[in-house]
Amino acid sequence: MKILLTGFDPFGGEQVNPALEAVKRVAVPDFELVKLTVPTVFEEAAQVVLDAIESHRPDAVVCVGQAGGRSQITPERVAINIIDARIPDNRGNQPKDCPAVKEGPAAYFSTLPIKDMVSAMETAGIPAAVSNTAGTFVCNYLMYRVLHALAVSGRQIPAGFIHVPYIPEQTGNRAEDVPSLPLDQIIRGLEAALYALPAGQ
Ligand code: PCA
Q1: 90, 153, 171, 193: most buried, per Cβ within 10 A?
Q2: For residue 57, how far is its CA from the centre of ligand 1 (angstroms)?
Q3: Does the predicted TM-score (pTM) go above 0.90?
Q4: pLDDT for 125-160, tens place per residue?
Q5: How far apart are CA 154 and CA 61, in angstroms?
């Protein structure tokens, strides 16, 4: 089983992206992992991942991003066909109120086993929950573009998105209480989630 596992680069003034740091360190000996760094840039993000799907022909696609402020690892249930950027991406683009894909369907559901992934993470002692919104920034955009491309090409492989919290190194100096999760827990959580993929059981 070959899994394309992607992580976004740091954005929004952060020095690190816990998603990328975790993706780099995830190890699941039973699977072949193809790891990819994705720029936090509209369009480019989708281009890079869709190209990798074409060249590597993975059996599953799991994209990972940071959701600052969350306290749990959250497999996303749904990607919606809207971009409404609250901050600029890493190239200064800040599109508002436009579709991810013109005339695409309103939304796509994740085709990852999100409930099994949450159970697997909880069993491993890692805080996890299904999320019902991937936001309206680059993460939701990438999830939508990947699911749309797979739907259009008729390729039925599990694909979707997982958001991870900040790591304590990002939140230590803030005055307000911002939740975080240590990197090693994010790594173990992602590993547990990957083992919930059908061929991993
Ligand atoms: N999180 C952002 C984009 C990149 C990332 O890691 C998001 O949630 O859209």
Answers
A1: 193
A2: 24
A3: yes
A4: 999 999 999 999 999 999 999 999 999 999 999 999
A5: 15
